């Protein structure tokens, strides 16, 4: 059992690192591309951010709860443990932010590609989408930090 637990813990830590690192990295590059106001940069960056989400974020999103719940089962810790329940609730909040963010990134990439191919500026819809993108990123980012805190300190919340 100890070997399985440690292997699951390693996979859990690696996938959380990929999830957090990819999220932070792609957010940084999207922000920098947006700030540049360079259509070519926005088109290429948004395409790569969508690709990174499919290659790294999506598998990590699936692996996290699977390995986390499996580890809980191995050590006999109930899902009703306060820090576990709070972590799962925050994970749902992250997912509710991430799903529209993925949609927005796909739309932004298409808008930028179309504008680039037609040699036109980005439509006004681009700015509106990016405003939503920014506003959804913060609660997700803060929730991940709180989950990391819960995983390390395992506080009794109630």
Helix/sheet category: mainly alpha
- Strand content is under 5%
Give the integer mean of the pLDDT values. Answer: 97
**Uncertain spans:** none
Largest sheet: none
The termini sit apart by 30 Å
Q: What integer value in Å does the Rg equal?
A: 18 Å
Shape: elongated
Residues in helices, as a percent range? over 70%
H/E topology pattern:
HHHH
Q: Helix segment count?
A: 4
Total strand count, please?
0
Describe the structure in your own words.
With 158 residues, this protein is mainly alpha-helical. The protein contains four helices and no strands. It has helices at 2-36, 39-75, 82-117, 124-153. Helix 1 runs antiparallel to helix 4 and helix 2 packs antiparallel against helix 3 (82-117). The chain starts with a helix and ends in a 5-residue tail after the last helix.
Question: What's the quick description here?
Answer:
The chain is mostly helical.
Topology:
Layout: H1 2-36, H2 39-75, H3 82-117, H4 124-153
Helix pairs in contact: 1-2, 1-4, 2-3, 3-4
């Amino acid at each position: 059992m100890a070997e399985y637990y440690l292997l699951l813990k390693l996979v859990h830590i690696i996938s959380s690192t990929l999830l957090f690192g990819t999220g932070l990295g792609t957010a940084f590059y999207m922000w920098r591309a947006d700030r540049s106001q360079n259509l070519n940069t926005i088109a290429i960056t948004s395409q790569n951010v969508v690709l990174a989400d499919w290659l790294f974020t999506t598998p990590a999103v699936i692996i996290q709860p699977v390995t986390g719940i499996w580890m809980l089962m191995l050590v006999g810790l109930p899902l009703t443990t306060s820090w576990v329940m709070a972590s799962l609730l925050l994970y749902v909040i992250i997912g509710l932010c991430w799903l529209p963010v993925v949609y927005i990134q796909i739309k932004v990439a298409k808008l930028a590609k179309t504008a680039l191919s037609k040699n036109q500026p980005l439509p006004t819809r681009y700015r509106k989408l990016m405003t939503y993108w920014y506003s959804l990123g913060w609660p997700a980012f803060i929730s991940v930090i709180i989950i990391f805190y819960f995983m390390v300190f395992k506080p009794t919340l109630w």
